[in-house]
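Hey team,

Filing this mostly as a record. A colleague (T.K.) asked me to run one chain through the structure pipeline before their review meeting, and I want the input and output archived in the tracker in case anyone asks later how it was produced. No errors, nothing strange. Just documentation.

Input sequence:
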Amino acid sequence: MWKRDNEPTPAPTPAAPPATARAERSERHEPEPPPQRAAESASRAVIGASIELQGELSGNEDLLIEGRVQGRIQLSQHVVTVGAKGRVSAGVHARVLSIEGEVDGNLVAEELIMLKKSARVRGDLVAPRVVIEDGARFKGTIDMDPAKPAQAAGPRPLAASAAAPAAAPAGGAGGSKVS
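Output structure:
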């Protein structure tokens, strides 16, 4: 009994410092997450399901496409997501591409292309990392050479190498190197 009476008396003394420590921690931690969340939501543009866009699209923020886009999308330092209702007929260049809807065009990513299970893609994929979920539909080629993502969107290397040997004999220079 003596111990029970003694325990509650010291307990309020340590309880007061943790409450102040909690207040200090909450002051330190609570202000940080809300600005990050606000920055994330402010840096993402949305093309809604009722929006149709034709032409060239570029900018400095992430993009979610739920509507229809035709033309070209150039957001090489940002994330482009084609939502489940999104329909894109365009070449797309982004840092990261996540596809849930339908894309008809070449996709080039600096880091990663993800085709979700609901994705339907017709076109070539160029990225160092490519993820195709079970159920996704894809028709095209995949190039995972990270050194040349921008070149793959252009002419295919086979056409260039076929032209090089034809040019060498025409030069008439004997002993020339072909590299």
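Quick notes for T.K.: The longest strand covers residues 68-82. The radius of gyration is 28 Å.
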